[in-house]
Amino acid sequence: MQLDPAKYSRHLTASDLSEAEKLRFMEQVWAIMESFVDRDFGESPEQILLGIDGDRITTGIPDTLDSGLHIHSTFNDAAQEDAARKSRP
Known about the structure:
single chain, mainly alpha, 2 strands, 4% strand
């Protein structure tokens, strides 16, 4: 849904905000409310990413990811090279 500022601007007539500030305020409130609605219907980005549909998770979330990169051995090799370099006279 799109924000229709004309519908809601009457709520800000007593404020001392400029017209641009009023519009920005309404856009921010609209975005917050829209995010609540999206979350309720399971359409927030986080819920889509995780596969959450209502109160149930529809996709499996892996405990770990296998990137094929073994950082431990890379780190250990670099540390050994550094230690060897420092121990040379």
